[in-house]
Amino acid sequence: MGKLINVGFGNMVNTGRLTAIISPDSAPVKRMIQSARDAGTAIDATQGRRTKAVVVMDNGQLVLSALQPETLSNRFQEKEWGKDEEHE
Q1: Is residue 24 a contact partner of residue 44, using CB atoms and an 8 Å limit?
Q2: So what's the pLDDT on residue 83?
Q3: Residues with Cβ within 8 Å of residue 82, at least 6 apart in sequence
Q4: Range with the lowest mean pLDDT among 39-43, 51-55, 71-75, 76-80?
Q5: pLDDT band at 33, cuts 50/70/90?
Q6: Please, what's the largest Cα pairwise distance for the chain?
Q7: What region does 75 belong to: left with phi over 0, alpha with psi -120 to 50, or beta?
Q8: Which pLDDT score, from 0 to 100, does residue 80 have?
Q9: pTM
Q10: Neighbour tally for 47: CB within 10 Å
Q11: Count of CB atoms within 10 A of residue 12's CB?
Q12: What beta strand segments (E) does the chain contain?
């Protein structure tokens, strides 16, 4: 199991299953979100706030976050660098 990163409001995502962190602003991503909601594979971790990032998991699930994609990316990179430092 990979490490966990906080995607907002205490919700965590396994970094080992993370495929992409994308912005929800484009029309294709909006359609992807709607399709995942219809299929029941969207996990809304926004606590009622505006979706600012979409985390795509390796099993096709989407995690909707109220944090900026850059913030999530920084958190992910911090976890990865921390992992590298442990092995040195």
Answers
A1: no
A2: 55
A3: 3
A4: 76-80
A5: very high
A6: 46
A7: alpha
A8: 75
A9: 0.88
A10: 11
A11: 13
A12: 4-8, 11-14, 18-22, 42-44, 53-57, 62-65
Helix (H) or strand (E) holding 77: helix 69-87
Residue 41 has pLDDT above 80, yes or no: yes
Give the separation between CA 54 and CA 75, rounded to whole angstroms. Answer: 15
Query: How many Cβ atoms sit within 10 Å of the Cβ of residue 60?
Result: 10
What tokens appear for 7 in the block? 């995607």
Q: Is 7 buried (19+), middle (13-18) or exposed (0-12) by CB count in 10 A?
A: buried
Residue 9's SS3 state is coil
> In residues, how long is the chain?
88
**Cα–Cα distance between 66 and 75 in angstroms, integer?**
14
* Residue in the block written with tokens 């999530």: 72
